[in-house]
Amino acid sequence: MTAPPTNLDQNAKAPTAPAAAIAVENIVKRYGTFEAVKGVSFSVADGEIFGLLGPNGAGKSTLIRMMTTLVPITSGRAIVAGYDVAKDPDAVRRMIGVIPQALTSDPDLTVEENLSIYAKLYSVPKAERLKNIAEVLEAVDLAKWRGAQTKTLSGGMRRRLEIARGLVHNPSMFFLDEPTTGLDPVSRIAVWEMLDNLRRTRNLTMLITTHYMEEADKLCDRIAIVDHGKLVALGTPIELKHSVPGANVVEVHFDRETPQWKARLESLDGVTSVQAESAGFYRVLTSSGSKTTMQLVELAAQLGETLTSLSVQNTSLDDVFVHYTGRQLRDEQVKPPVFTLPPRPGAQP
Ligand SMILES: Nc1ncnc2c1ncn2[C@@H]1O[C@H](COP(=O)(O)OP(=O)(O)O)[C@@H](O)[C@H]1O
Ligand SMILES: [Mg+2]
């Protein structure tokens, strides 16, 4: 084995043209006796945005940490930009930008200082450093904030700074762990647009993890659904949706709970499955939304029962997740804590 390079040469080329930007083969991670990643394989094409979608604890961060040389791989192989992660970690590090899940920019430094430190760590020459910093600040729309202290930025701006920092050494591959977790919906959409734009203008390959189905759907070319350390499905958002029996979802609300409706809905033409969501609310997967809707309305009229709402949609990644795991992804999201206030002084017990 040759010694790993010590200086981070910006112009290093992969020894052979990579067949895929990322190739992961039967990769396993064990912590003691616990297997966090249980033999996962996939590959990512050049220029693709690839998503790892799964609930908390699925193994997404562990997968990213293995691919980015941050934790050792227990068994299996990961090739990133043509280099074997286990054998040539320095070469991999030169080629990649990594945005971890937690915010890691220094709040007491200015925006520019945070970028400059990273550029120096990656040995970007001084002249190039200034040019790169100006370019990445422009790309994430923070040019005006160059001299601002990082702690004065909003959550969305801080996330954009971290994205800029990951780009300051001109990587060809970008790894982002939950890039929009904790952001408000408006900032989230701004980050999606920015990432899509960066991919096109900088010719980047991106691997992101997320537990937001909408994020995976809107942003990713292909998605791997991960659950309990295993890959349970892989495809484009459209392929995944088409792989679920039933092309439409009919959501129906009755004005009161009638348990017999589950069986009644299951007996309608085209229906492949029925989920009781809450009192009087059902999600029906069907091969024909229009047929099922007509039969449903007729049946309710015959029985004298009242519908309070009815909608027909195409299947979503939510339905895909339920189909492959038997659970709903949104159930897994962290519930807001419930606070119990202490009794007010003098209040009745
Ligand atoms: N350093 C560690 N030591 C032991 N267990 C870990 C460690 N890091 C992660 N895990 C466990 O591995 C599983 C996958 O974690 P993680 O990759 O962080 O999931 P995700 O990013 O999908 O939420 C979880 O059960 C987690 O508790
Ligand atoms: Mg994680």
The mean pLDDT is 88
CATH superfamily of the largest domain: P-loop containing nucleotide triphosphate hydrolases
Give helix % range: 25-40%
CATH fold node name of the largest domain: Rossmann fold
**Cα shape:** elongated
Q: Compute the gyration radius: what is it?
A: 24 Å
| Total number of beta strands | 14
Largest sheet: 6 strands, mixed
Task: Work out the helix count.
Answer: 11
CATH architecture of the largest domain: 3-Layer(aba) Sandwich
Strand content: 25-35%
Note the run of SSEs as H and E: EEEHEEHEHHHEHEHEEHEHEEHEH
CATH top level class name of the largest domain: Alpha Beta
Number of domains: 2
Uncertain runs = 1-18, 332-339
Ions, cofactors and other bound molecules: adenosine-5'-diphosphate, magnesium ion
Gap between N and C termini: 74 Å
> Reading side by side through the largest sheet, how are the strands ordered?
6-7-8-3-9-10
The assigned structural class equals alpha/beta
